[in-house]
Queue: 3 jobs
Job 1
Amino acid sequence: MRQVDLPEAAPDLPQGAHVLITGGFGGIGLTLAEDLIRRFGVKITLIARRALPERALWRGWLAQHGPADPIARRILALQRLESLGAEVLVAQADVANLVEMQAARDAGVARFGTVHAVIHAAGVVDDGPLVTKSAAAAEEVFAPKLHGTQVLDRLFPDGSAALIVAFASTSTVTGPAGQVDYVAANEYLNAWAKSRAGGRTRVIALNWGIWQGVGMAAESLSDRIGRPPSPRLPIESPLLDEASFDAQGNRIFLADLTLDRWILDGHRTADGLALVPGTGFVDLMAEAWATQGEAGGVEILDLTFFRALDLAEGARAKLRVRLTRSDEGYEAAIQSEQTVQGRSGWLTHATAGLRPLAGPAPRLDVAALTARLPEPETGEGLASPQERHLRFGPRWRVLAARSLGPAEGMARLHLPAAFAAEAGPGAFPFHPALADLATGWAMGLIQGYQNDRLWVPLRYGSLRLYRPLPADLISHVRNAVPNTADRPMAVFDITLATPEGEVCAEIAGFTIHRLDGPLTLPPPDLRALELETGPEKPLSAAEDRLIAAFRQGIRPEEGAQVFARALALGRPQVYLSSLDLPALIRQAEATAAPRAETSGFDRPDLDTEYLAPRNDIEKTLVGFWQDLLGVARVGVEDSFFDLGGHSLIAVRLFAMVKKAFRVDFPISILFEAPSIAACAALIAAELGQEPAEMAAPGADAAPVAPARRAPPRRFTHLVPMHQGEGGAKQPFFLVAGMFGNVLNLRHLAQLLGGDRPFYGLQARGLYGDDTPHDSFPAAATDYLAELRQVQPKGPYLLGGFSGGGLIAWEMARQLEAAGEEVALLVLLDTPLPMRPALTRRDKALIKLAELRAKGPGYLADWARSRWEWEKAKRAPAGDAAEAGDFHNAAIEQAFRAALPRYAMTRRDGATVLFRPPLDLHWQVSGGRWVSAAKEYVLPDNDLTRFAPALQVVEVPGDHDSMVLEPNVRVLAARLKAVIATAEDRSPAPAQPLPAAAE
């Protein structure tokens, strides 16, 4: 890289030339468009992903929407360009969609003539650490610059346009933190420009530095425009008021808290502070589970309390329960909206995992328990042990009898008659007042217990809620460990049952913590808030540097001049920056260098001595802790909490641990292993490493805890492939192809799953030792059993890729036989189970055609290929896949075994076949065609005789690449249209929850 002076020459652009601009409504694109209009009177085709309203509606739109509205900004920008006398065509297209871009180009050519120049200014940036980036997020960044460039390369081959300018970024040399995907996408642009150097079309990549006022840097430092907030819809639930989605598509349930709610007013400290009881968090999670539409009981795992939720007199608080889907069920968080130092965000009070509960409830032998315990104390509304420290409302007067033995006790509880209707089906699933006393009445089981300290809940290891708690309840409490008053924590196991012995809830590892002073709740720390995206978001050090650079960036009027002069250089790649680019590179390298021990806050005065990391796991964890906690030197024996750790940091920490080590620990493990050494030992055990393996040479090995078993997956076949809840529209289910793996469908899921849940269905045996299905009806039955857990009733939207379409066909048959409606069956290039073999005559015609084309050498090639085929057929089967690998060979073998046994049945419902262009390789007898794979080519894959209403849609690519970028964008757009038509014909399925539109 070397600095050069730009020539004064103007670009060779004819007056009135047709210029096509992608990303044309971006600030830089509009700036350049305005300059080109002023200087050359160009005619412009602007590519935009979203259509503008009809021109007649513009005045009304501008009257109803402020200038921050994206559509309003585009209308105003277009009006400004037209005020300069420009002719502008706005063409709606996704730059990575070949068909849409072809239509946009053709519309521009029809109106303005041949495209003279293309300015490819489309781009997306998504700052974030690599450890937190998902494949879907990276794909969104890749799409405009990588896949969009591929589309432009096909639409504008060499000589079809005079000039193509691709906008890249100086980030390719500065490597800013959090932009690994953006850097890669821009480097692709540079490589593409160089690959087209020397052709009849001039292709140049301009690597822009930061601009002032416009461009991605300006957008990232202002309000980041995400999806519009989803509407909040009212719901019927005891504590929860509304349902919606957060910005990531996760389901959220909201409630307004005031002291008018008895759960707060009836649960106060001796000083009068109103608190939500810990059992209230359990009930909130159970309500969210049921309102989400999950049927049956729920298992709440590792419910950890981080901070009490209190409310002052006259105050109001917004509470939300957020459910984030996981492989096992959901991860739940209970949060309240807080304002700290003028910034609003969500403070986490409790987290847990929610899992479906299968199987019948056990029974409690109440008679045997009564017989072995002492005579009970009885009375109405007996006082509970902690009433010295807490003031309870009338709903807490529930204790009717209690009996304590040496290590267990039993109590009889019932809600007062005035409140009895609040418990049971259709009411509170885990009545907070009843459950509070049912889990906290047996403090006397703590040896040496004195009623001089308040004990507060810390954690539920697991809580299996089989059914809502009834108004009359039996509580059986046992010591889970030797509980003594001199220990800071006590742990109990608890069973809650009906008086007849039907177990309603089983609790294991209920942990309470003794306070050695009064309950104090310091103001929330700003760092503990999960801040909403917006201008109130605190700036990181990297953002501070970005602001400094932004203030010295390229001014718009300079950028327009620089653009014109840079084209005159005649080079395929040019870096354009108003800042000292070598200095920026050095700054980036210094930022990326290992952090000095003096960076961050000084190490606080701790009880533990500093101990350096001794192995790779500990070194990685030290890096995580230092970054998250902002402490310069973290020792491996330092406590997370002593260093200022809190719930939000814990959540981020364990997300990083999961990403780095592929292990999934509950957050409450920090209470068991609060130091790096202890956490590293748990990780090593999970990875199967011995102490000697994880320790660095000459270091003492950290103790290794017993290995933790990974939690079981909720589904064997069903794979949620959407972000969050996927939106509120009807789910779409797509069966994987012959190898049973859904990974190749992730691109389609990303594009289709923005406003609807998108589920892949993978084969049995893909993981682990399960035997793959060798029968399509059996596979369909098992797939449907899981499908019905997320959509119990039709109408259904089903599909299958390749051979998976046959299983989807069978699923549709079974659903319709059961009286359900299948609104749509989508087949992605699905063939018949058994395709007709080539006749001897047609084989001979193919050989004759090849002989004519290739000459005598074809015979030698054919003989060699035949010999290799025979040798491969006789070769012994390869070794079985190792544990953890995809069992492709076994799944393929089982799939092929199922093919000849499957008899296709007639289908009269809506069926659409998406297929690539026909591969007409050889013409044979009867005018038929044969593909390169030596199969007869049929426009409908011969499916019309089984589905008379079959609709065939052609999409770009081949059998495999039709579902991959960039071809998949065409498939997704056309599939969306087909689904919309099907939904218009068929009513939406009944929803247990009023769905919020995205």
Job 2
Amino acid sequence: MRHEPSCNWQPKFPSVIATIMATCQKFPDRPAFIYRVASQELTVDYTKLREDVILLARAFEERKITRGSRVILLSDNRYAWIVTDLALMALGAVSVPRGSETPTQELKFILSHARCSFMVVENDALLARHQEMLSVYKEVKTVFIIEGNDKHTLFSRFYAYNDILKDRTLSDDNCNRFDRMVAKVAQEDLVTIIYTSGTTGTPKGVMLNHRNILFNTEMLPPLIAITEKDLWVSILPSWHVYERALELLALSYGSCTVYSSLRTFANDLLTYQPTLVATVPRLWESLYSKITAAIMERGNRAFAIFSLLIKVSIRFRRARRQLRGHLPQFTATSGLVRFGQKVVALAEMTVLLLPYVLAQKKLAPLKDKFGGKLRMAVSGGGTLPAYLENWLDAIGIRIANAYGMTECAPAIAGRGYNSEIFGTLGPPIIGTEVRIVDHEGKQVAPGVEGDVEVRGPQVFDGYIDNEEENRKAFTADGFFHTGDLGKLTINGELTLTGRSKEIIVLASGENIDPSRIEGAIGQLPFVKDAMLVGQDQKGLGAIIVPDWDKLKDFIAERFGLTTEKTEDMHEDLALRNRVKNEINRLLQAKNGFKPYEKLQKIDLLKHEFTVGEELTNTFKKRRHVIEKKYRELIDRLFK
């Protein structure tokens, strides 16, 4: 278990629910949520949010959910999700959230491991998917269905929200009782048990208390300068700690959240004109691919001009940062060297000034696709590749590049308005200690890569019923092993360089971080996804998820080859070699890659990676699942 850090921070309110109820009283008429039911748009103000939470908390209490009850919440994004979460907090119950795509076997494991006595499920269809398991799993006393017809009959354990919320009258006694209940919730009380997405194995239950979450909601605002006037468009799964923390942050400051979806996201940006959005790198990669493909369809000349505008913008902005001292510095340099660098930067800016002004004018329509009022986009849930960060910066989108983990509720570091040092994750969150250590646990100097360890009020107390993992997770002095590799600048900004648990070791002993190479491969317009393989092999291989239509267009344009059938392309060994050669053109020394980081073999998959199987909810690759599923194919690569 961890030790309490030297930070003596204390929250303004004793609990998350107390914080949000105070917001409801401060901004009663401001909108809290906007969402759709079918084609109807609904807006909920903070007064109604409070009433809905009180009503649901009362209904839950009447059906025996009490302080300490474990309640699994199986649902995707919807207004009722956050109401349920807050109602459980008010009761002092513990939520165990999970998304709708959770396999039955995994759900059964979590129900049992977390010792859940109650279950909230999104709809009848989702209930039916797990009905067989639930029919024999009697430890769950009561099941609540958010969206469904009346369910309850005598001696039945099933209730629809329609059943339990028929009486919507609230008396003063109801409200006073609710307030007394909230007042009893303390910062050390357990809020939730979030099971990790399982990128490396069996899910582990992360226990987060009110103090962990409150540290995030109180310390993150300076990074994004949030106020009650801000509007978010939300697209990530509410049950994931990253999205959940941002929704609670929005509620703590009186801003409004619009629930969107992948299907409506682009239109919602134009319709609602958000000031803030939160996404994961995979969504930025998708945006990059769509825009690049759309411009390529206009012809080679249009694409060449667009690429030149991006390059001009990147070079000018980099030179300006060099002049201002806004680039990461990992080793100390003399004043004379810095002066020389600034002279060169100023000269480059002078040459590029007019082309840059033109580039910004031409690229402005891309920024307008985000609604025209976006002042910052938060990127978290994974490392944002350098090419994407440069590309987004070139078109004028300011990114708050954030770093966190479920175990930290989630924030560790972030580069928002608190830091101008581009290409980094900014400094650790105020009150957070981050150190970089070598394989012996000794702290290393700035600029030296090592394991990232963290200590602070946001760090969890441990995994539920997993002493072995808890022993591995913490150092003797209470720092949490993140499993990430990184280094610090001389001024304390953090950069990540890879995952220590994902490092591929070749037979020659070379250590390779797969994420960096996979990020480079993803720049090719016909690559949807890629996973590097080669543990204990002589060289690297990759399994590629192609966009078959774009690949067809690419080989026609590049090599003058035409084919109509995906099957023919999949079996074409010569085509694979051409694709491999295109990838290796990116993996050259001039781009920072070593000779042994080129690919020796590749294979093309017919099917995409899917969320819930090969991908987590934030689109990270579940490497152990992919390796197991495609073991035969991977073995064949190295024969």
Job 3
Amino acid sequence: MSRRYPENSDVATYLVNVCCELQDLPGYERACEMLASLEPNNPHAAYALAGSRYVNLRPVLALEAFENAVRRFPNHEKANDARKAIAELEPKVDEILASKNLTREDGWDIAALFERAQSYLAQGEYDKAKEAEKELLKLLPDFVSSYNNLSLISFAQGDLEGAIAISQKGLEVEPDNIHSLANLTRYYLLSGDIKSSEITCEKLKKSQAPGWDVWTKKAETFSYLGMDEEIVELFEQVKAKGELREASVTGYFPHFVAAALARLGRVEEARKLWREAAKATQASEIAQANLDDLKQPVGQRHAPWALPLASWITRNTLEELAALVNSNSKLKDEQQIAKATQRYLKEYPQITNLVPLLLKLGDPQGREFAFRLACFAKTPEMLAALRDFALSQHGLDAMRYEAAIQASEAGILPESMSMWIQGKWQEDINLIRYELHSEPTTNHSRRVKQMAATAVSLMKTQKVEDANQAEKIFKKALEIEPNSPDLLNNLAGVYQIQGRMEEVYQLMLEISEKFPNYTFSRISLARLKIDEGKISEGEELLKPLMTRKRFHVSEFSSFCNAQIELCMAKKQKDKANAWLQTWEQLDPDNSQLRQWKFRLTGENVLKKLSQMSGWKL
């Protein structure tokens, strides 16, 4: 609306309020500028503009705006707060100007132009930011900060080669500039030039050059490379120098440290730092997102992540991908989708290098982006990335499990392997992709259907007298349709209710031999063997079904029940949980899942309740 009605002050007012509620600080500053321009005599707009520049760390522009507001509206309710801010900002501004060998007389306009350029960059106004930076370089040809910002603009606009070239120009002026080295390390990494990235990063580690928020810049760069131990070491250096408070102004430094600590297993220390970063800082949103994600069950967490997807990939590149997806949205053939995705990767080869990094270090959006892209493309590089991701401890269990299946089907992982599931390594995870269907497994005449339904209803009572009646009905039905494995299987069920176990075993074996594709009898027999403690016999009966990939829904339910019972009998609770997870992914609404979940986890819950309440269980 603000773009459509740029002269409407009501829209600008709404935009100010919305950005404030969303804690969109760059957007808030931009909206305040719009409102103050439209309503120059509005004291609230004048003070809001000054405050927006203050929270966005624009000291020169903030001082200018506060002085203007106090001069024009000296009796406003915010005037005294503004005077305090002026007293705080004046020495800081003088210090900033002095660091560039400038004074208020000869450097004010330059400093204001510099901050305005930074503001445009943060707001995504790239053309305005580029114009301001070029104007600065006319005034100060060796102003490295402008080179750094111009490189960021080039990257944001999708010109990675241009961003590298501009960063190199900045380093010609100041070879140890931390921001230039950090940016160049990142650009090399994202372009796939790993060797150059590592060389530049080594220079960055050694650099002690002064600059704005250099600790955060180093930690951010190390985060791209997954250098967790180096980030923690940096944290210790900052604490030893007594500069932690200064380094934590934006909240990003403690956030980067928290992400590194969490990846190193020091989760409680990470939570503490994220809580600090979540308190009204620029990093509050990403810090809180990590904290919220850690509340999920261990197998459903993406955390920790240090950087959002927008830090890894440009908006233009994402828009190109969106156009590709939209243009191929009607494609149903997997080969067509794969070819379309492969064309995209050829056009943007740097994305191929990004996928493994995003699978390892990305936020939920970034990891999902990389995962889907790799699954669609199925190139050797993408399949290798999926394999490595499956073998890692990063991201959601379900996502890694799907990656493992993709890699297994491509022949680069076995059909059974160890995986990190529910926060620990679990062995013999089955990677076969099962297909479930609900098609009828047998066909009966209407009369036999009615007879079978009546007999099954009698069986459900589990009473011997009802079972006797059901036996007569099933035998009459078998006279009509003698080659019906389901009728025979139900008859075996009747024998079980009656306690005729030898006949149960004999009949089930006959069914298995005569109807090898009918699984119920084999599974039922295996479950009986397991229940009687004949574990190896039960396991042998189930083995032929392990390579079967297509099941009826009810067959699969019985099969998973048997596998979980086998695992529990062998005291392999982790493996039982893995089978339960496989079952839940394919048949999430099955009523039997809840019973197994309680059996597998309820004991621990009861123990915790016992400890809390003093009960003895």
